[in-house]
Structures are given as C-alpha cells and as structure tokens.
Amino acid sequence: MHTMGSSDGDDSTNVSTTAGKIFKIIRDHGPLYANDIVKRTGLAKSTVSEYLERLLSVGLLRDEIPEGSKRRRLKVAESAGYVVGVALGQTRLNVALCDLEAEIIDSVGGPVDLVRETPDRILARAVDFARELEERAGLGPSALFGLGFSLPSPVDYAQGFPVNPPVMPGWDHFPVASYLAQEFTCPVFVDNDVNVMALAERDKGAASTPAYRKASFMLVKAGSGIGAGIVIDGEIYRGAKGAAGDIGHIGIDGDETLCRCGNRGCLEAVAGGRALAAAAEAAAASGRSPFLAEVLGRGNAVDMETLARGAASGDETCIQLICLAGSQIGNVMAKLVNFFNPPLIVISGSLVKLGERFLASIRESIYHRSTPLATADLVVKKSALLERGATMGAAILVLDEVFSHRNVGKLMRRSPG
Amino acid sequence: MHTMGSSDGDDSTNVSTTAGKIFKIIRDHGPLYANDIVKRTGLAKSTVSEYLERLLSVGLLRDEIPEGSKRRRLKVAESAGYVVGVALGQTRLNVALCDLEAEIIDSVGGPVDLVRETPDRILARAVDFARELEERAGLGPSALFGLGFSLPSPVDYAQGFPVNPPVMPGWDHFPVASYLAQEFTCPVFVDNDVNVMALAERDKGAASTPAYRKASFMLVKAGSGIGAGIVIDGEIYRGAKGAAGDIGHIGIDGDETLCRCGNRGCLEAVAGGRALAAAAEAAAASGRSPFLAEVLGRGNAVDMETLARGAASGDETCIQLICLAGSQIGNVMAKLVNFFNPPLIVISGSLVKLGERFLASIRESIYHRSTPLATADLVVKKSALLERGATMGAAILVLDEVFSHRNVGKLMRRSPG
Q: Does residue B86 have a pLDDT over 50?
C-alpha cells in the first residue's frame, strides 16, 4: 500500500542510503554542524558536504547560523512539507496537520460512533477534515508527504487494514490504506493507536530524553480499552500477527467478568474506563457514594474527571474505585515487567485523568509483585502528550517511513531542485 | 571482561567489517558458492574473491567441491578452532568442547550442589573439566577461541557476573568472567541459562528452520526453576537490567504458595519441578496414588519420568498433576502471548519429560486464554536439544561474539597465515 512512487529498481542505492543516513542523524540530533555529522557518520568531510548541499538544494534541510557563531548548523526544513496524522478513537476522530518535525500546525476533530457508523462514512469524514486543514494552511497538492492513520484495533501493517477488531463492526479487513490512497497522492500508513502513541512518546514525550534514546519501553493506554505499544531499541515491535501489546485481554485469574471479546476476566473488562464508569454508577445507585449519587442525580454522566473530583473531595468510594483500577492494571503490568524488564513505562489514556492516586496504585502493584532486579531502575510515568499523542504519533509514523534511509534518496529526486 | 585482545584503535575497520560480513553469511547460510556470496552481500565479485582468499589463508574457511560440480563451495573451517560451553545447573555441571559450527566434539560433567558449594570450588571444577577436554582432544594453548558459561540466574552480561540469584549463596556479583579469564587466554562470556538455550534453539534446534530465520520467539525452560529466553529478530533480548524472561516469579493471582524468592504464588513455586515432586510425594503419602506410593515405598525418589510412567500406566493422580502443571504454566504463557505475540514457543527443561500430555495442557491453556489473533499461527513445541541446549548454547554465545563483524578482522590478524 505504502510504496514511495514506483522506482523500485533503484540504481542509486548508495546515494539514497548515504543521504538518508545523514538526514536521519540531523532529524534525530539536529541542529548539527557539518563537523558533528562527519563525526557521527564516519564519512569523509567532502562526502558529507556534497550530500548536505544536495539536501539543502532540494529543500529538505535548511541552515541557520547560531548567535555568536560563524559556522552554519543544519536542521530539517520543517516547512518543506507536511504530514497528516489521523487518530480514530471509540468516540472521536481527530486529524492534525504537522510539519516535518511532527509539530502540530493545526487540528480539527469531531465525535464518531465506531459501533454504529460504517467505515466508509468515518473515512469520508477523515478525508474532509484533512482537506479542511490543507485548505486552511493554503497547501498545494504536493505539499503532503504522507498520511498516517491510527485506529483502536490490531492492524496488518503491511496491508494497511484492521484485523479482528473486537467491537468495530464492518472494519475487519476493511482496506483503510487503499481507500485513503485513492483520495491522496501521498503515501498512506495505517497502524494501531498504541503503537503510534508510543512513537510520539519516543520522539516528543516521556521517552524523548537522552536517557531513553534507542531504549525499549512500553506505552500503556488505559481508556475504554487497554493496550500497550512496545518499543524495542527505538523501533515499534508488532509481533507475529501485529497483535503484540494486546494487554487489555490478558485474563485476571479467577475473575469471571464477561468481556466484549467473549472471554471472561479480561483486564479491560475489569479495570477499563467502561467498567469503572459502570462501577461508579452502581455505587451511586446503591447509596454507597453520596458524591456520585449527587452527580448522577443532576443528570450528569460519571467520567474519569468526576471520579477524580470525588476522590479529591474525600469520597471513599471514588478513592477505592481509583485505587482498585490502578492495582488491577499494575498487577498485570507486574507480570509483564518480569518478562520484558523495561526501564520505562509511560501511562496514557483517559484513566490518567483519575490523577496521581491512580498512578501510585499502578506503581505500588508493580513494585510489590515484580522481582526486585526488574524494578531496580524502573520508571513509571504519565504521558507528556495525552490526547495529542495519537495524531502526533500517526504523523511520526509517516515521517519514519518517508524519511527512511531508502526513501530520502527518492524524495531528493522528486523535490524541486 | 570479554574483549578480543587490545587493538581497540582498529585502523582497518572496513577490512574487518567486510571480512566479518562475508564470514557471517557463510556461517549462517553455508556452504555457499562465491556467486551466492556476491548476490547476498552486493559486493563486487573481485572484492568477495579477495576476502575469501584471505579467510581461506588464515584457516577460518575451507572449501569443498560438491560431487558433480566443478566449482568450489566455501564453508566455515569447523576444525580451525574450538570453543568450550559450560552449563551450570542447580544440581549438575556440564562442559562441552565444540567446533566452530557449535557441534559437540566431546563433553564431561558431574553433580554439583549450588546451594552448599562455593563459587570458587565449582568454577575450579569447571576449569578442570575444560582442561580434561582440551587434553583428550590434544589441543594446543591457542586452539580455544573462547569459553561460554551459562548459569541459572540473572546475569550482568557486560560485567560477566550473576546478579540477584535467588538461591545461590555467594554468587551475587561473584566475578565469574574475571575468574575464568585468569585461567584461559581466550575471551570468556557469561550469560543466563535460558538465553543461551534460546541461542541453541535458534541455530541448531526448534527455531533453526528457514521459517524462523531472524524471527522472534521464546524458549521456556520448565525445570526446578522456570524461566524464558527471549529472541527478537534473531538476537537475545536481555531487558534493562538483564532480568527479562524471569517468568518463574510471575504471580498467579490469588495463590498464596510461598516461593523461595520470598514472594507468594510465583509460577515456579506452584508448577516448577520441585513443587511437582512435593505434590507427588504428598499424593503418595495420602494414599491417593497407589502408583506413587509404590515408587516411594521402594525407596525411589519421584522425578518427572516417574510421573510420566505413572500417567502412562493410568494413574489418575499422575495425570492430574501433569495436566495441572501444564495448565498453570500455559495460563501464564497465555498472558505473555497477548503481550509478545511470538510465532513460536519452544519448551525445554526437565518437565518436558512429563510427556505429550504436559505439552498439550500448555497449548490448551494458551489457546483458551489468548486472543485468537495472537494464537492464529502460534506453534508451541518441544525443544529439539533438551540437555544439550545449554552447553551448545554457551558455545554459540562465544561464536556469535568472536565471529561478530568487528572481531573477524582481528582473528584474521591473529591466526597463522
């Protein structure tokens, strides 16, 4: 689906690869002086100079002279092109226009009903949103370098469609990438929401500090559904069938709660946002929580912010519900920490709105139940990006692909000289 | 610890790297014709010829002319050198002398008591065993390319010592690699047993077929302890603190069995070899199993073969114990399959002796409790190597390091011309 033009019989692999390498180093570490690039690549100074000129001339790089310096530094020409990141959630569709540094320039979004609306209808709305953003930014037809689409389901990444989505009728094997490729001339990439959220944390969020460069970590999204994006040595790990990280359907031993997937005792059926809201409503109805009874009495729904406010006001039921969800999620993550031994776990999703008490309960369960060695230096922290993570991550997915070693050479031939 | 000589300021990186690349391709895919190597490397024919001559002249490669062909094929000169693989277990020390294809030439071993004997004493015995093998093979002092040491504990791989071993008094941070480096002039590498067992399955066992080349898989050792070796894209994944794969201490929710690690409900405390033997003895004492009562009555210990024989003879208790252990292990693995989505799980360790019923129970639990997508193509199979896996794997660990791109060039300078 996501090929970069048709020049498969590339006769200038070395040129492409070298340009790609240099571009990637500048993308990852820039702005950089030419000397720094020589050091990092081990290439001859003359070779680096030659490629820098070419990348500058096609507009992929730009230079700047820092104050007090005489030498120029190179950086990605962030406005040389744009990418669109689309994030489809259970109840909302968000679309962002990003520059080549994955910074969000403009965004738009609206509600969706993933269970009731057809894929065609939702995708058409995504296309409309993207067109709206293009128009507002006054972009020409070749300004888009690519479009990334994230959705809450396992995805066959190579084919660009969802596979076995648990509660998205009509989406199984629906050709999302092909559909969008008909609408746009740029390459289209489709992936799972937690994978792209992990990419966003890697480049722009909680895992973007030098300490975690090229590290392995987990991004856990705790929302209506629960899932994990797994990054190994800086790259997304998808597993044999693209199903890696599907931790929401890990079973809690002995729990018999029926899950939407048909199994019993799945983590998300017990501690996901939907389960939590249902438990809160039950607590209100039974009179156990005066705070929640009052909220419901006023005709308001109970969401994560409500629970957080209840806990802050000292409502014991709210505190208990928050701590229980945290400890149930932490208990499953303790098992995964023993297996995967990551240095970092980033928590995102709507349950983060439950507040510090929720995060503390997750940490407590992990530290209590994992081996001391596996948790010796483990950091569990909140996403720095939250809602922006998914659209930004979908944009980064595109940038990673479009600016891969191999593809930068092609872009150099495509861009105006 | 495991440096290859002292030439760190290597002035011939490209030579080394090219030689290393060619050697690795021959090691992984050989025997090969020169043409195949040209195709696989993309190097010029003249370059490949030049390096092949050099690798032949230093004795790292040899050629052979297949019947009916006129052209020579290149392969690793398996007798150009040797490596020693040492596997230390809870109750046994095994040492193998292997050729450069990791085939075992000769081996020797004996009982140990990891809890009562000091590290010095056990390592001295390992040295004696290795010397005995060198002598029997008539090897000179420079014939050994390296020594690999595997032990049943988390290992700090860079430093070459065990870290936080659960039940090995005196071994925590004991400098195993330094100790052995004083005895041998060759490089020494120390790793966890399940990691090297996974390497052995990758190169010589259940994961060595083309279908799993460069694949990700798990090797699960189910013995007195339970642990997993994780291979990602053909390489060992160790985790942030070398603790990855420590699945024996994953907690079973609600189980309160005390584990040797101090925690409660750990998988190996519930379903490991020791727990199984204890349960069998209790069943014998209570009269529930006439078969086991008779075995114990004759003064014999109950081991895994005994349980397998009991099950084969129709003893219900034996059958129940085997199925319960399999389903408990499978239940934990189901969670890990949701997270890691491997195409292959290889089962090794003494519990494999429980027979097909045990493996079937593991499979049943995984298929029952993982998502359908994650298990769509999952294969769960018995190790092809079993006991040999650990010594062979320790040898492969050495070969991987010694024949890395970087090091082959150094070997070319060291070897006689």
A: yes
